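fyi for ur records
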Amino acid sequence: MPTLATDHAATGGGASALSDVTRSEASLRRFLHGLPGVDQVGAEARAATLGTRSIKTTAKAQALDLAIRMVDLTTLEGQDTPGKVRALASKAMRPDPGDPTCPAVAAVCVYGDLVAEVKQVLGTSGVNVAAVATAFPSGRAAMDVKLADTRDAVAAGADEIDMVIDRGAFLSGRYLQVFEEIAAVREACARPDGTTAHLKVIMETGELQTLDNVRRASWLSMLAGGHFIKTSTGKVQPAATLPVTLVMLEAVRDYREATGEMIGVKPAGGIRTAKDAIKYLVMVNEVAGPDWLDPDWFRFGASTLLNELLMQRTKLTTGRYSGPDYFTLD
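which gave:
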């Protein structure tokens, strides 16, 4: 399992390499509370400033295609049916059937019991199947239930697992419990062939109360073995915000500086317009760096965003703005 660090890792420059340490509540608490505090006013001001940046028309077409490639096309409703998710999977592969140059999305995200339906449609298309697990969205279940949930989704063919942390444990200061749960879920993502489904750790930032907690939860999730850190389930408001994503991008940037390892970021929930998506892409480039401008390292968790991106893309291509009914409903 992953280990923690004895050195005080300074984020924001000159981070020393993380060294092995015995995992204990005291060492984990000391590490997380030793991280520099977040200036909330400063973070909000910087996020607002980055949100005003504009890009050239020539770059906008590339940005729209990149944003489409970063979408995890998502449906997580109790009324989801096999027919609905199969249709969504078809759209994921060919978002605009009338334009073969339109790229596919990154993944289709569904509940675990529908993974096999999606996998059958996607086949070898290169679009991944993501499954929410670990008693999504609350995370309130016994550990054996969470692990069984994860293993079932992986066995059904999930390429990616989106787990939720126990926010009650985190907010109570039981950091080691959260760490060990993430590490155990990471192990449950293993496949018989020796490969591992990628693990996205949902922190539900709308319940974490402060940006300091967002930074701590980000580092905790990375240290425990998450491949991605994700803002939200989409079931709690506020979901993804620019200031929260700014703090997470700073965390992955500093984690790579300290360890040499890249971790992905996924804002999810509430990102509905192409303009908003481009704001996030600008922030990724400015805060983490261009290496993260890739679907392997940055995703949008969204259900309605794709149609908006397609409408803007069509306008750039044809000069005409198509209404939302021009594309299939997600």
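The longest strand covers residues 107-111. thats all i got for now
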